[in-house]
């Protein structure tokens, strides 16, 4: 990452991915744009998934810092004021772990500010709704848009159900938000889609990167993939393997959170 003589720094934290193409389109793209937006800051990056970090190192020889390793480097570099911007979707477990690792070094810095993840409040939801309904022309009520999120055991997982409700409150009763690992799961979403009975389903990942989950859990040919489940129910399905970081206005939402943290 970029290191200047400045004592002010930005740390960008992502979960990570072993899929290089989607990393370049999403994580790398966000990091580069932040570097361009804030030339006077030293820029650092870290991933929270140690399993993915290890896999990428063994396969590609690419060294990626954990949050703790990045913080140790930041302290060694003499940074005084740090702003941390996660690319996480919700205030879930990964965000909590990130904050804990950052704050272990709080006594070594004069100030630490932490930006919000993507879906932090109703205003964020409204931006997401506008971006995705315009992108996929959801004014056509004959088709349904299904967003596949990751999901979490964390209490903040309710953000997915709240986003689903917000889509419908805004007039998009043909948009459905589900998760792989929590509520609402594919069983809930399938019942809701059946009740709506669209002529076509569009499947997209509601994740920063379109990696393993998008390629396999969403669009794969196995019997437990969402594509297979919807097709087995009789629906034509189109899958778009596109991470949230590829939408300009979604990236802008992250940058808005970062700017708010910088001036806090």
TrEMBL record:
Residues the entry annotates as binding Co(2+): 150, 181, 213
Protein name per its UniProtKB record: Anaerobic cobaltochelatase
Signal peptide as annotated in the record: none
Molecular function per GO: metal ion binding; sirohydrochlorin cobaltochelatase activity
UniProt GO BP: anaerobic cobalamin biosynthetic process
Metal-binding among keywords: yes
Keywords for the protein's UniProt record, in alphabetical order: Cobalt, Metal-binding
CDD domains: CbiK_C (cd03413)
Record's keyword annotation contains Endoplasmic reticulum: no
């Amino acid at each position: 990452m970029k290191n200047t003589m400045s004592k002010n720094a930005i740390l960008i934290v992502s979960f990570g991915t072993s899929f290089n193409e989607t990393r370049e389109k999403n994580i790398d793209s966000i990091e580069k744009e932040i570097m361009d937006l804030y030339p006077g800051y030293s820029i650092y990056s870290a991933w929270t998934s140690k399993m993915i970090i290890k896999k990428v190192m063994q396969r590609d020889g690419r060294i990626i810092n954990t949050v703790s390793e990045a913080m140790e480097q930041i302290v060694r570099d003499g940074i005084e004021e740090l702003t941390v911007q996660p690319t996480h979707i919700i205030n879930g477990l990964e965000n909590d772990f990130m904050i804990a690792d950052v704050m272990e070094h709080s006594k070594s810095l004069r100030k630490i500010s932490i930006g919000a993840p993507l879906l932090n409040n109703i205003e964020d939801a409204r931006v997401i709704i506008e971006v995705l309904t315009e992108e996929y022309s959801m004014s056509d009520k004959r088709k349904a848009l299904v967003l596949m999120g990751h999901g979490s055991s964390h209490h903040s997982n309710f953000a997915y159900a709240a986003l689903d409700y917000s889509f419908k409150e805004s007039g998009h009763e043909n948009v459905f938000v589900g998760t792989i690992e929590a509520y609402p799961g594919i069983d809930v979403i399938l019942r809701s889609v059946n009740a709506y009975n669209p002529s076509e389903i569009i499947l997209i990942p509601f994740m920063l990167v379109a990696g393993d989950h998008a390629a396999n859990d969403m669009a794969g040919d196995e019997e437990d993939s969402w594509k297979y489940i919807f097709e087995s129910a009789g629906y034509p399905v189109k899958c778009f393997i596109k991470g949230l970081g590829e939408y300009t206005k979604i990236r802008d939402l992250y940058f808005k959170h970062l700017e708010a943290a910088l001036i806090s």
